[in-house]
Amino acid sequence: MANSPWKKSTAHSAQNPKSKPVAYPVVPVKLCDHLKNAVPGKLTADQLRKTVGGTLHHCAADAWEAMVDAAQKAGIKLTPTSAGDTYRTLESQTKAFFQRYQLEPTGNPDTRTFEGKKWYLKKGMACLATPGKSQHNMGIAVDVATASGPRLKWMLDNEHLYGFSHEVQSEPWHIRYTQGNQVPPAVVAFVAAKAG
Ligand SMILES: [Zn+2]
Ligand SMILES: [Zn+2]
What's the CA-to-centroid distance between 196 and ligand 2, angstroms? Predict the structure, then answer.
């Protein structure tokens, strides 16, 4: 268990954000067997489940609910920014992509290749993964509302216990379930307790 992913990471320093920028820990995603042949953004009904604030793959939903419960006990409320910021269908990701990116150069260095064309981030828009490339399309990512201050600190201190990790340094709100079949003990315990 030397490389146990739910042991506390020392890669970040949330304690002292003023002295240096916090580096969000990024753990690579392992997919569970249920998602091995999943088509991004086209998950089937048996791969999805309604959960706190939206819809996720059922394994990620277990982990998310366990983490929401633990946060609540610590006085921290975790909710997605919207239901659309949990699982996203390919259609909704594509619609959001077209809202944020355009074919005409904007001068913004953030570009994406989609449908064989180069797309430029519109002014004032937050970046977004190319449709089909987002972990939201796999039902394992959640954008947490107001991920700053004590809430963000709680996430950084605890998300690994529930198999979650950040992904992009510019998105403190975006976390995704990384542990695939290797369900973290805290999630196993939560699911068992819920089942009675
Ligand atoms: Zn699964
Ligand atoms: Zn996200």
Answer: 33
Q: What angle do CA 169, 173, 174 make, to 5 degrees?
A: 70
Paired strand residues for 177: 164
Domains of the chain: 33-88+134-195 (3.30.1380.10), 90-133 (no CATH)
Q: pLDDT tens digits, residue range 45-70? A: 999 999 999 999 999 999 999 999 99
Determine the length of the chain: 196
* d(CA 144, ligand 2 centre) in Å: 8
Q: Quote the pTM value.
A: 0.86
Q: 14 pLDDT exceeds 70? A: no
Ion ligand 2, residue ranges at CB < 5 A: 141, 143, 174
Q: How many Å lie between the centroid of ligand 1 and the Cα of residue 59?
A: 4
Task: Report the C-alpha gap between 43 and 141 in whole angstroms.
Answer: 14
Ligand nearest to the CA of 35: 1
